# Entry
Amino acid sequence: MQVEEFEFPEDRLYMKNHVWLLEGESHTIGITQLGQSLSKEIVHIDLPDEGEMVRAHDLLIAYETIKAVSQISLPFDCIVEEVNDALWDRPNHVNDDPYTVWMVKVKGEVDHHALMDVEAACSYYGELIQKERQRYAGY
# Structure
């Protein structure tokens, strides 16, 4: 599905912090196209260690852009199965293709109530884009 010029694949779940989750034996985590567009260029990333246990809502990933420092947490406990080691040397690789360049893979029981399907995500992000456009309309 698409909101404005931003794509949201139908096979993923989404969080309000611009994070996507692809469910599987290990759940794959990345940043949405809209999120990476807002972040611009990612200049540094702190990834967790493989095997690390991360509690719900605790810091999983921190990344720095030319604008700000952002953090990613998940709404469920997880164990880090794999990290995308290529991001250590080239963190802005996420900006190349946000739906194929993932950050981490985790195991844990997904809390579906805390995540949005593609329809809910598109509705949420569409409203968010409209509010931002209205906010900056006079500038």
